[in-house]
Amino acid sequence: MTRESPIVEHLRGALISAGAGVGIVFLVTIEQSARFHWRSAAYGALMGILGYVFCAGAAWLLRGWLRTTRAPRLARAAVYYVAGMASWILASWIAHVVGLVHFTSTLAGIAVYLPVVGAISLLIGLLFYTYGVLQDRLRKSVERLKEAEFAEKELEIARSIQQRILPPPELSGDGFRILASNLAARFVAGDFYDFFRLPDGALGVVVADVAGKGMGASLIMATVKAVLPFLAAERSVAETLREANRRIAPRLERREFVALAYLRYEPDTGAFALGNAGLPDPYRVADGAARPLSVPGPRFPLGVRDEVAYEEIRGALATGEKLVFVSDGLPEAPDASGEPLGYARFETLLPKAADPASLFSAVRAVAAPGLADDWTAVYLVRET
Questions:
Q1: Tens digit of pLDDT per residue, the chain (384 long)?
Q2: 375, 353 in Cβ contact below 8 A?
Q3: Are 193 and 206 in contact (CB under 8 A)?
Q4: Three-state secondary structure readout of 52-106
Q5: Nearest-angstrom CA–CA distance, 311 and 237
Q6: Burial track 98-110 (b if 16+ CB lie within 10 A, e otherwise)
Q7: Which positions ≥6 away from 122 have C-beta within 8 Å?
Q8: At 292, phi and psi to the nearest 5?
């Protein structure tokens, strides 16, 4: 809803006031119909137009005082009352001079008419003011609705982008099986995961948590997804994270960053190399126990610093062993008392959870209803 120009608003107000003035003169002379003719109508229109000009002009000239006074409504009423009386005196004098009407009013008659005219001006002025306030509120409401509609469309686009960049929730091949799931706390999640094949046959696994939501976070996800496989093709895990940080950091705004864990896995041997840039430690699950794999060295999320000397750890999975990657929304999920679940307690749930769905169910059983943050889990299982 666009606002009309002030000229259009004032012209419309003056015309409405002119009509009101004609109507008032007609009502006053209704019992003397012979006295109501075009001169009376012209006098009423003049009175209405001058009344609008005086009231609107006085309100504009005194706008600073009207904003700061302790009783703005009472003050505005007084302005309209006085301006209405002044406009009637001027309109009556002009009408008498040009011959529209002839007055023989006494001071006593004027004293009677002035309060009545002031009251009528007060009523009409407050009606115009109230109409303007309601119109302004309506315009702001329409603007808010448009903003909400735009934001909703942006979220829909962001969600569409996110769904397109996420790989299938299950991937199998010789020597491995991957199971993944992502639950958004809001319409669009800040978490994402990815799997990709490297030129030498190794498998890349990425789990990340992007600071922020909406379109911006989705575009950052898309950037990370596009750049990592290219960088990882001829680099070690640590070198891949270092170069990814160099490429991504200049593109991020302040307070934008990407917490990310990257794994390079060789299906033939079960060997892996793991690097971590700010994500919770992945877990190695075997023999009914879950052990966190902590990467030494700096672990700043991508984009926090321009240069970070990331490190990596190496190992190998035996047949049946799992590597479980999670975002912080799972171990930090609040329980019924509002306290975080905690990593130590979370570790006890992992050995019995065969896949992301069962892990989510186990966390739900001990956490408060709803999601305070996104949940993401990726299972890498070595198979024969």
A1: 555 566 777 677 667 666 666 666 666 565 555 555 677 777 667 777 777 777 777 777 877 877 787 777 777 777 777 777 777 777 777 777 777 766 655 555 555 566 666 666 666 666 666 666 666 777 777 777 777 666 667 666 666 666 667 788 899 999 999 999 988 776 555 788 999 999 999 999 999 988 865 566 777 887 888 899 999 998 999 999 999 999 988 888 878 899 999 999 999 999 999 999 999 999 999 988 999 999 999 999 999 998 999 999 999 999 999 999 999 999 999 988 889 999 999 999 999 999 999 999 999 998 988 888 889 999 999 997
A2: no
A3: yes
A4: HHHHHHHHHHCHHHHHHCCCHHHHHHHHHHHHHHHHHHHHHHHHHHHCCCCCCCC
A5: 8
A6: eebbeeeeeeeee
A7: 77, 80, 81, 84
A8: -70, 140
**From the centroid of its chain, how far is CA 277?**
29
CA dihedral for 179, 183, 189, 191, sign (positive or negative): negative
Instruction: Convert the chain into a string of H (helix), E (strand) and C (coil).
Output: CCCCCHHHHHHHHHHHHHHHHHHHHHHHCHHHHHHCCHHHHHHHHHHHHHHHHHHHHHHHHCHHHHHHCCCHHHHHHHHHHHHHHHHHHHHHHHHHHHCCCCCCCCHHHHHHHHHHHHHHHHHHHHHHHHHHHHHHHHHHHHHHHHHHHHHHHHHHHHHHHHHHHCCCCEEEECCEEEEEEEECCCCCCCEEEEEEECCCCCEEEEEEEECCCHHHHHHHHHHHHHHHHHHHCCCCHHHHHHHHHHHHHHHCCCCCCEEEEEEEECCCCCEEEEEEECCCCCEEEECCEEEECCCCCCCCCECCCCCCCCCCEEEECCCCCEEEEECCCCCCCECCCCCECCHHHHHHHCCCCCCHHHHHHHHHHHCCCCCCCCEEEEEEECCC
Which tokens belong to 168?
């299938």
